[in-house]
Amino acid sequence: MKMNTDLSVKEALEIGKAMPYAMFTHLSKVTLGKTPTVVSLDELIEARFFGGNGEIHIFTENGEQKAVHITDEENDSRFPPIDREYTLLSNFGKKLTVRQYIDFDNEEQAYIKAVRLLGWEA
Known about the structure:
- By secondary structure, the chain is mostly beta strands.
- Helices cover about 5% and strands about 55% of the residues.
- The protein has one helix at about 10-15, and strands spanning about 1-5, 20-25, 30-35, 45-50, 55-60, 65-70, 80-85, 95-105, 110-120.
- The strands form two sheets. It has a six-stranded antiparallel β-sheet with strand order 1-6-5-4-2-3, with helices on one face. A three-stranded antiparallel β-sheet has the order 7-8-9, with no helix packed on it.
- Strand 7 and strand 8 (about 95-105) form a beta hairpin.
- The chain is globular.
């Protein structure tokens, strides 16, 4: 797993618009589905653009919007990532797949280092 925090929100939006799926949390609603062509940042709390190759996560921290880009890398951990499927309420689709990245601390205890959205089924 590679995590890039050195990108602007504008750069993140451009990368995210090329990904197949998106989840938006606004003050007034939550949406999940195929990535729209127009993305509104009004009332945005959090945005996740995702697909098989990675995730763009846009969020607000201390009043400032930030972005993170997570991508997969081969053989970057002693333990392969774990993919989990979750059944959704019907207004959000059928299924959401989430990837968990495992790492080990200095005492060799396993922990979940990062989580990202991987796939969605309508």
